[in-house]
Each structure stands twice: as structure tokens, then as C-alpha cells.
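Notes from hallway chat w/ T.B., transcribed later so I don't forget. T.B. wanted the structure written out for a chain they're using in a teaching module, and asked if we could keep both sequence and C-alpha cells in one place. Agreed to drop them here.
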Amino acid sequence: MVVWLSYILTEQDHRLEPVQRWVNSRARLFNRLLGIELRETDFTDDRLANVLTTLGVTESQEMIAQRLSQDWITMYELPTEVIRYDSTTIAVYQESDEGKERIIGYGHSKDYHPDLTQFKVMLSSLDMGMPLTSQVVNGKRADDGLYLLAYEQVVKTVGHSRFLAIGDSKMAAWETRCQLTMGGSWYLCPYREPASRGEDIEPWIEKALTQPEQWQAVTQTDEKTGEVKTVTHVYTWSRPQQSIDSNGNLVTWDERILVAQFLALQQGLTTRRERQEAKLYQALDQLRLPPSRGRKRYRTELELRQVVEKTLKQFEMTGLATVSLTAEAHKDGRQRWIVADYQRHQAAW
């Protein structure tokens, strides 16, 4: 394998057939370097193919990947205090063969292409970006069960479990959080309602909003101007958690909750809502105009009220604006209903 890698690197050629001639023409050199006597048939393409077959065994691949990662971590003194986990799906134009154990299948498409088959990749990496482990599985598999498999592989690779595991909301499943804690690790992930055993996030937000004096400011310094800006307010508290391990022992820990108010996101949502509000008022102005070609005449208050409610829902302004209606005489002597006035519901806003 070492000699073959030497051939690939020096000749920029990955073919099997030329390796035998290349090695035999340098037999004295390799005999001296390896301290053995090579035979003329040691590097036939059949023997090299057997090497590829051996390398293709999953257990061998995992062992080699772990050894390589361990060497890199040791050689470059890479920090292993933070491990990141993430998964993604890759859509392909290939038929699924559900009758066999294959990695190509139909599943929930994040790319909005449910018509395409896909496979899924679960990746774990050091905080500085170096990949540690990867799992390639069928695209129909759920993400939840992949985190613990990746976690166990990482523990074997880095040689300890005293690290912070960072993942997306799917890592927040209760079983995953329990196993990470029992394994001696910490976790950091976004809130996920289905995984929180029926807990509602709204009381957390209300609790934070009623205690602004306890918010902690997260700041960022502009490298050019030196200006310090507040980017986030964080309200945090801890709560006890407990679970039973595989030996029937009770395991307890404190879980820290952070409710974050991102000011840039807040401003973006406010700007978007103000644009929706302006579009709503334009639509309501049309309901104040007299009937004409292409403009409907509303003969009852109920009929117009239904249209107003539909318009409020269309622009996501239900409950955020109050609209009053009035009746006025039409030239034919009957009544018509129009929008009399509208304004922002400030308290709801």
C-alpha cells in the first residue's frame, strides 16, 4: 500500500496495471527502503485489486479514518473541546431499489424535490473545521438516530468525551440529550418543540420579557470603526433534569436554557411587517372608493367585513389593525358599504 501510494503521488496515475513495471524497475531502491526482497509478482493488478477489496470493508475504513484523525490531532495539537454535528441530503437522478440495502431512497426532501431519490450524509467535525467522521445512509432515514452513532465514533476518535457537542434542533431530541449527558459530554442546540416532551416555549419568552433587567448583552466590535454594538440580548436560567441509564441508575444534571433576542432579526421582522402594513392600507383604500367598472359594490356590512378579514389575513395583519365600516347612500337611492377608517392596533403591534 505504501509503495502504491508512492506511485500515485509521483506519477499522478491511479491505474493498477502500470504499477508492477514501475516497482520492478526500481527494485533495488524499494528493497533498500523496505528492508525486504520484493518478488516480481508482488505488485500485479490482481494483488492491488485485493488491496482495494480489503480497504472497502466498512470496519477497515472506520479504523483507518480514526487512526488518521488521531494522528492529525496529535501532530498539530488540534483542540477537541468542541465537536459540531450536521447532516444534509443530496438528491440524485437514480431509481430507488427498496428491495436491497442501498443508500438511495425516497425521503423528506429539504430541496423541495420529493420526486427525486436521495442519500443522506451525517458529518462530525472539530470546531476549527476538520472532519472527524461521516456516515452515508439511505435518504429516507430520520436524522435523530444518526447523532448518537456519530457521537460514539467521535468519542473513539478523540479518545475522550469531555467535549461540547453542537448540533441543530434535531439533536435536541430527549433521548439524544440524555445519552450525551450520560456519556460525559455537554450539548448546545436550538429549542425543538417535539423533542421537549410537550413543553411550550411561550412561557419562556414571557418570563424573559418580564425581567429585562436580567438580560445579558452580547456585543460585537466593528474592526474598522471600533464601535461596540449590541447584537443580542440573552436571558438564561437552569432547570434540573434526570433520566435512567442502561444500568438502572438515576442520572441528574442541570440544563441551561437561553432565550435570545436577536436585534438584527427583530429589526428585519419589523421592517417586513411595516411593508405588509403599507400594502394592507393600499388595499383598504381601494375599499373606500365608489364602485366602478371592475370594482365591486358591497350592499351589506357582513359582505364587506368578510372581505376586510380576508385582506387582513392575506397581509398577515389579523389583530394588528382595526378597520371601521360605514354605510353611505348610493345614487340609485340604496346603500353601499365602504371602509370608513383604519389604524394600527398599537397594543397588539
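Follow-up for T.B.: The first strand starts at residue 82 and ends at 92. Might be a good example for the class.
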